[in-house]
Amino acid sequence: MNTVAEISGKVVVITGGARGIGFATARLLRERGALVAIGDIDEKQVQKAGAELGLEVFGRLDVADPASFAAFLDSVERQLGPLDVLVNNAGVMPAGPFVDETDEVTRRILDINVYGVVLGSKLAVQRMLGRDAGHVINIASLAGETPTPGLATYCASKAAVLSLTDSLRVEHRDAGLHFSAVLPTFTNTELIAGTRSPTLLPNAEPEDIAAAVAGLIRDPRPRVAVTRLAGLLVGAQKFLPGAVNEFVARRMGMSHAMLDGVDVEARRAYESRARGLDS
């Protein structure tokens, strides 16, 4: 199949597109001829990213605000045409003990990681149903299938994204729409600043996730894990006793990686932004 031909001309919106996975995905799809628009809560950074990528449409987007999300999609469709693909990528990953997590931080994780994906998916489907075509790609995480101390609410939020994606796919099975989830392992972005990666398990790069998204646009599938090795390891957990899985996680260094294994200073800037403290 000709990947470039299948992606070229498609109108693609990427949330959280100012940096990291979102930026890498925007760059790759742009190179392959897609009409890409990026939105991000960080207006200064998204202006910089949009200009760097040479995009026609980019700007501030608060995925937890229905008016902001709807207005952004309306602007995209006015300028680029009907929405073909929505990549729900925006997300935050504050780390730390569950009992120390403030209600404000809990709400922020759920607002962005869950409600933002629910809202974006709903707005996209409303636009796509009339054309019997369209694709919603949700950036979930292998954390949604892997209990991780220090990331309890984040893991719960990504499990919700996986369940939402699967449910929407079944609900719209006969409507010509596609729903896919991408499940990254630890990826070399600011989300993992100051943390230690699992032993013997290489991190993914943002470009790996971007390539997975491009592959899904070409050949829609329910789920794809990145890396493949990490996906196989997580999948194998379903066939092993819980005690064995917990032992393996301890040996890989995951029991405390997001707790006392965190370099607080190296992570300070990201945590400030993720928790909404850096305005």
General description of the model:
By secondary structure, this protein is α/β, with parallel strands linked by helices. It has a single domain, classed as NAD(P)-binding Rossmann-like Domain (Rossmann fold, 3-Layer(aba) Sandwich). The chain is 47% helix and 13% strand. It contains ten helices and seven strands. The chain has a seven-stranded parallel β-sheet with strand order 3-2-1-4-5-6-7, sandwiched between helices. Strand 4, helix 5 and strand 5 form a beta-alpha-beta unit. Helix 2 crosses helix 7. The longest helix has 26 residues. The model has no long low-confidence stretch (mean pLDDT 93).
Short description:
The chain is α/β, with parallel strands linked by helices and 279 residues long. It contains ten helices and seven strands.
List low-pLDDT spans. none
Number of DSSP-assigned strands = 7
The overall pLDDT, averaged over residues, is 93
Total helix count?
Answer: 10
Structural class label: alpha/beta
* CATH class call: Alpha Beta
List the main descriptive attributes of the protein structure presented here.
alpha/beta, seven-stranded parallel sheet, Rossmann fold, 47% helix
